[in-house]
């Protein structure tokens, strides 16, 4: 088969050969959900924020609940969720410490199994594959059922990362997983088999995923996985020089899916591998009408004139190379302008505009992106996992900065409230102190002390008259007046009968008072004790009121101090957050520049190839006799 001078570049390109298949080993990640029931009020609040995806409030509520010891039933579960939230924010070390602490303290086998699973996940994501495998081995049989599938997927990915493909193959072949998990397992199994040198069996499993027609085959996730499997299968077949198998697999890729451009490019190379250059024109012409940022489209600009050259259509080949050269030169200018915009600090604002307009998806529709030098490259940048994670961290830091700003505003509001309270107290204190000054409590206490002393005298002297009733005192007063009149005429013969009657009446009155005296004394002493208690309580309450009145404004001082301390902490955190924001923005810019430079390098290589091919076409045309078509 005839080959172009630049044909080997295509064979080593980013979308050709087995390397593409190997790069796509993947697996779904099961979401960890906390239980539905909440037995503690604080845990219910945590779940509310968790299910709303408000992760910062959820973390804050967990930390507050732990500080206040508000958990009676969900302490370990709270730690698991807290570790998972930290893991979601990429705080691997903090999450790891939480899970390791659970392993040291928990005796619940389910909690320990979940902690080992999370530790394995952390270590895998940080690249510590041997440690991840060791953690997986410690899980045992205590893992809840909803984690088991994720455990199999994680272990398979760890084994493949360690290049222990045979073990991954045994694991995946022995696993029977539900729904789309099985399709992911077959996909990874196909990749593992190919890497292990069993390409024939690997192709079989990729083909199984590519033709999957189960009940859930119409879902977007499974359709994307099928496209991915068919694309990987097609390029694997191309590498094995199985043209028919490659074309069959590539034809199954959806024309409107995210892998369509790469499938069209591969279909054209399958035709050229079969020597049918005319058939290769069809998919490559379609490609040239697609997004010019797509690497497959850029490669097709070279592939199309190459096919014309092989068909001895010299004029079309020269025209195609010229179009390619113009396109590459224009793309280099746009890439340079985009790099200048990144260095000028326009990247994050452009990304925020894209996010605010709700266009942060996978489709690369250029009419949705901001009209700027950077706009056309935002979707390709967002396609990179590292860039997505970095931008996610940037957004998290922005949210944290905004939350800290709101907290600062709240602290200012609390300070205003304290000032208003201080002013109200200052206005009420004089009246409160005046009311305490005019009280008769001290007088009552002194009077009670005198009465208590009198009661003791009455008891000691058995002064029955002191406890007489009002009627008895009235009778006694009448008898005393009568006795005074009789005493004025002592020994008068006409008054002897009255004196006898007076003595009898006085004796009867004294007898009545003396007989009632014990009961009256008990009642008086009981009333005296009740009065003493009431006066003591009144004194305590007055002391409390006096303390409150005297404290007045001073009671607000600790609250003001706490606000000042919190204010300082918020300012410190805002400063650190903004430093991190600036650092994260620099990282985003570095990633963007690296991607733009990578694209620039690829386009320059294509431009060099196109110029060489155009020069070669002119050279061949110069050697052609007049009237003949250039070969």
Q: In words, what does this structure look like?
A:
The protein is mainly alpha-helical. Among the domains are: 31-162, Tetratricopeptide repeat domain (Serine Threonine Protein Phosphatase 5, Tetratricopeptide repeat), CATH 1.25.40.10; 440-553, no CATH class. The chain contains 25 helices and no strands. Residues 1-36 and 359-367 have low confidence and may be disordered.
Count of individual helical segments: 25
Give the termini distance in whole angstroms. Answer: 15 Å
Percent in helix? over 70%
Large-scale geometry? elongated
* Percent in strands: under 5%
CATH topology of one domain: Serine Threonine Protein Phosphatase 5, Tetratricopeptide repeat
Radius of gyration over C-alpha positions, nearest whole angstrom: 47 Å
Q: What name goes with the CATH superfamily of one domain?
A: Tetratricopeptide repeat domain
Low-confidence parts: 1-36, 359-367
The CATH level-2 architecture of one domain is identified as Alpha Horseshoe
How many strands in all?
Answer: 0
Q: Briefly, what CATH class of one domain? A: Mainly Alpha
